[in-house]
Amino acid sequence: MLRCADFPVRYLKVTIVLGLAICLAVAALYETGLFHQLDIGLASFLGKRFTPIPPRAVQYPLFILLAFGVAWATIDIPRLALKCIIAAGALLQVLTAVWVLDLHGVFFSPFAAVAAVAGGFLGAFLYSRGEAGSRKRVLTQVVGDRVSERAFLALLDAAEPLNLEGERRQVTIVVCEIFNHDVLESALSAPDYVALTNSFRSNASDFLVERGGFLDECDGESVRVVFGAPLTDARHAGTACEAALALAERLDDVNRECLTIWKQTFDFRLGVNSGETVVAAYGSRRLGTLSVAGEPVEFARRLCRSNLTYGTRIIVGSTTYNLAEAAVEVRPMELVNRSADGVLEEIYELLAMKNVLSAEELERRDLFWKAVVYFREAHWDEAITLFCGARGHSGGDGPIEFYLRRIAQIRNGLPALGWSAGN
Questions:
Q1: Which SS3 state, helix, strand or coil, does residue 274 take?
Q2: 170 FRET partner, CA 20 to 30 A, in 107, 108, 220, 390?
Q3: Is a pLDDT exceeding 50 seen at residue 421?
Q4: Sign, CA torsion 147/149/151/153
Q5: What is the pLDDT of residue 103?
């Protein structure tokens, strides 16, 4: 069922104003008798001995409907050719009605309807050539279906147009990637491989877009979605974390379906990072699309790949955690060198949103956190005790096994074999 919120309010207001203006103008022409003079000529052409007076009960509803309908279609439809086809179709139907009704002995005056179609089309066409009127066409070209319908309408109705020349914006990037492509490609036929990986792409991209994200990239290996652009979201970090956690559950369901159909599953991981990026329409005149650029985008990809080192599902950067700290539960992973200046930055495993973990899970999380502190202070025995205490009943815990292996490496005099942001 369609609601008012499903229509662009800006265009709806313009249509109402323009439609009213056209209707008043056509009504004035009708009441002054100008159309009656044209009716005399038409009646003579059709061979009638007298000119019937078209009833207002027919003329008024018809030209009011056509004025508003043609104006709305001309404003709302982005393609010029389609605008013209609809207006021409309306005119053709009106003129055809004259001939069809005349065959049945009924005189129909088309002039008020023709004036309404022409006025609605010309007025709406002139509006659509301006900045406000062409906004939908521009958004369709640079954004298209990469945002939800609700977000698209919000951009269309925004007080200010989308800045396509480039602006710096604080956003959160979510990268979701498949890491077992080689296994899948060797185990499946080409059509099955494409079908399975497309199930990942379509589910991941559609899910995150409906959660408020902007689909920045969807290629053969990964999906990248931006929160906080092009539609502003002050809670972009928290929104992105919540979406990433929900996506992991959704993709687990998809994997169960894939296992049933193809006897294979995809190994997916997620990286979430926040920072300042440049949001703009990148590309050429032939292929220009909205995108984001900057170091935070690349770091999100590196965070995603770091999951393979830690045995985790979702890793978030320190900026994301600082912005969403009140809403999420995390475990610390490592202090990494993010840039050449040697400044260390904490990265975290995203566990859940607030008030979701049980008391036992929170206790194990706290033990893990203390164990990491002992590890960084080189108190190996205390760290091992706490890491073992942080294990759950299921036994397997990638980050705990990672740290226990690292302690063993250090005690055996081997270099610490971990991940760094420069990789």
A1: strand
A2: 220
A3: no
A4: positive
A5: 87
